[in-house]
Amino acid sequence: MAAQSILGRITQMARANINAILDQVEDPQVMLDQMIRDYTSSITEAENAVAQTVGNLRMLEEDAEEADKAAKEWGAKALAASRRADQLRTESNLAEADKFDNLARVALGKQLAFEEDVKNYAPTIAEQTEVTEKLKTGLGQMRGKLDELKRKRDELVGRAKVNDARARVQDAVKNINVLDPTTEIGRFEEKIRREEARLRGQEELTASTIDAQFETLDDLARDSEVEERLSKLKVSSR
To answer: Which of 1, 45, 112, 195 is the most exposed place for a label (fewest CB within 10 A)?
Structure first.
């Protein structure tokens, strides 16, 4: 995947307005779970691509360093050959002096070639460095968005659980309202009152029976007294 293509994709995902997206779906949690999977997959893919881009940049930098090193080495060789040629000329050894001057020219040519390579590497390295930094920044933003998605998902799951609990409470309250506990209590109280009245009736009935028994005893006592007095009257009249 080309670096610019990766960068465009990273930028698009990093700028995603999560809340706006969630407003357009019926089940935000399902959408968030899918987005988390997509972001995780995209981040992994982008990380691999960015790693390759960074690796290519490092190779370019190494090549530029090698070219710069080679240019300096050939420059040193050219200088050494030129000095040797000058020394040989002082010794009137012109043929050997020309030979070393030619070697110096060859070395200078190679030095120029490697310096040209270094110059050519420079804009490419600068461009790749800029792209690499943008890719790293974009990846950081994507990771931030992924964390935001996870927090949002956890928040929604928590809120959904709270709402479920509230709904269960409301259902229970509705059921209680339907049952009308005050009516049930009233019915139970009325039942108890009826039972209490029945027991009082039984107690009164029992008490009446006892009173009647005692009244019977009183009647017997009176009858006995009457008979006794009657007997005394009879005796006194004789």
So the answer is: 195
The alpha carbon dihedral of 72, 75, 77, 83 has a sign of negative
Residue closest to 145 by CA, chosen among 5, 7, 12, 6 = 12
Query: Are the C-beta atoms of residues 149 and 35 closer than 8 Å to each other?
Result: yes
Helix axes 28-90, 3-14, angle to 10 degrees: 140
Residue 41 CA to its chain's centroid (Å)? 17
Residue 145 pLDDT: 83
What are the percentages of helix, strand and coil residues in the chain, rounded to 5?
95, 0, 5
3-state SS assignment for residue 17? coil
The amino acid at residue 16 is A
> In terms of CATH architecture, what is 3-179?
Orthogonal Bundle (1.10)
Q: Which CA distances in Å does 198 have to 122, 188, 203?
A: 111, 15, 9
In angstroms, the CA 205 to CA 226 distance is: 31
- pLDDT tens track for 177-205: 555 555 566 677 788 888 888 888 777 77
Residues 6 or more apart whose CB falls under 8 angstroms from that of 156 comprise: 28, 29, 32
Residue 25, φ and ψ in degrees, nearest 5: -120, 155
Burial of 183-218, coded b for 16+ CB within 10 Å and e otherwise, reads eeeeeeeeeeeeeeeeeeeeeeeeeeeeeeeeeeee
Q: Which residues contact 34 (CB under 8 A, 6 or more apart)?
A: none
